[in-house]
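Predict the assembly for these two chains.
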Amino acid sequence: EVQLVESGGGLVQPGGSLRLSCAASGFTFSSYAMSWVRQAPGKGLEWVSGISGSSDNTYYAASVKGRFTMSRDNSRNTLNLQMNSLRAEDSAVYYCAKDSQFYSGYDSSYFDYWGQGTLVTVSS
Amino acid sequence: QSVLTQPPSASGTPGQRVTISCSGSSSFIESNPVNWYQHFPGTAPKLLIYSNNHRPSGVPDRFSGSKSGTSVSLAISGLQSEDEADYYCAAWDDTLHGITFGGGTKLTVL
């Protein structure tokens, strides 16, 4: 059974940093791209960043580029999102999502599994 | 502003058939397969339809997807109260090098 469990959320002050993690199990982690998707209060889903199975391709939404860094440790089946220079508008539930392909966007890929999410609140 | 546009809300009565549209430019819809996700707030989103009209195993056949011209649609037949949720279309965007989501449609079962 595929499981994705996010952790690391919490309350942080504007300008601060936070590191989210996603522990994956039940599939060959290194064979699939992964993404982070967030949902701010009262808003829709927003893709944040994605990484290929081997980490050779990493992509970011314009809203987080230069502030967030996504990485993965295939030996530990773990996905990470380092979030720096946090802003109030980064407050959201952050979900990790498994892609159906090695590279996102290739061969009609889609998110076939999602985690339950971790809440990030940026406030003073 | 997303390249995919959804109506903010939709509604229907139990047993009815409801459709939710997801529109974009003809070139985008033609070139980018669209996926649909069901989301109950506070829970993990769920894949409903992939590549415009394919249903993953385990998803009831009441849910179907189609594509026509500049839009794709999600249809839910035999509407049930448990279908009340938020529905999102999404697709890979080569311009953004990332996934773009529609704004989401809140489905209410009256």
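The mean pLDDT of chain A is 96. The interface with chain B takes residues 4, 35, 37, 44-47, 49-50, 59-62, 93, 95, 97, 100, 104-105, 108-112, 114-117 of chain A (CB under 8 Å).
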